[in-house]
Amino acid sequence: MALSEEQQLEVEALCSIYEGDPSYKQIDQRTHQYLVGTEGESGSFLLEVSWPVDYPECPPTLSLDSFYNKHMSSSVKTAALNLLRQQSEAAVGMAMTYDLFDFAKENHLQLINGHSAEATSQRTSPAIPTKVSHNVFGGMEKREQLTKAQKRRLADRTDHKGELPRGWNWIDIVKDFCFPNIPSASSKSSPLIMTTCELRC
Q1: Rounded to a whole number, what is the distance in angstroms from the first to the last CA of the chain?
Q2: Rounded to the nearest 5 degrees, what angle is found at the Cα of 145, between the Cα atoms of 139 and 150?
Q3: Other CB atoms closer than 10 Å to residue 166's CB: what's the count?
Q4: RWD domain location, by residue (predicted)?
Q5: Residue 165: CB atoms within 10 Å
């Protein structure tokens, strides 16, 4: 059966986001796989997301039954799938394949060990900006979704763990020592270093 327009757009978005990523594989129009972790390591696993005809109005089918996951016990698979299903049920009505893969990447150690991953999924830095608002009838409206470009920019700014790179907010000490009397953005934000420079010069 042919894909709906919404499903076709999501396939195009996934192909664009994961272009050149060897961890992502599209099995067919409705089935997508992502290798979470480093290939060959014991902590890695292969997550498969299959879309039913009514997707995204109903949650996708999630599977860890691939031969690659033979090292995982059935209890760990069940616990991991339960956490992933909670994520998918919370996002019904929205394109969620990327979000499921992203959740699995961020929490793969907790998923492989069967621990709860909710705490780490809600960490604050840097969080994906989402807006949730109340409608007139008191219910919750859908979260605002990021575009492909916004997701790509967010991925470019952060590393594979979703954290900013080391030293992103460091100041240029050499510049402050060489030109102590010239105010700069870094010296304005660091009056202590400016004072030390003036004392030494």
Answers
A1: 76
A2: 155
A3: 8
A4: 9-111
A5: 8
Closest CA to 79 of 123, 124, 114: 114
Q: Give me the mean pLDDT over the 156-162 stretch.
A: 68
Average pLDDT of the residues in 164-183 = 67
Mean pLDDT of 84-110: 88
**Residue 134 predicted with pLDDT over 80:** no
Side-chain-facing half-sphere of 16: CA atoms under 13 Å: 12
Task: For residue 98, count CB atoms less than 10 angstroms from its CB and return exposed for 0-12, middle for 13-18, buried for 19 or more.
Answer: buried
Long-range contacts of 137-145 (CB under 8 A, 24+ apart): 142/93, 142/94, 143/94, 145/94, 145/95
Q: C-alpha angle 148/153/156, rounded to 5°?
A: 125
Angle at 161 between CA 156 and CA 165, to 5 degrees: 55
Number of H helices, E strands in the chain: 9, 4
pTM of the full structure: 0.54
Residue 126 has pLDDT above 80, yes or no: no
Provide the mean pLDDT of the chain. Answer: 74
Question: Please, how many CA atoms are within 13 Å of residue 73, restricted to the half-sphere of its CB?
Answer: 5
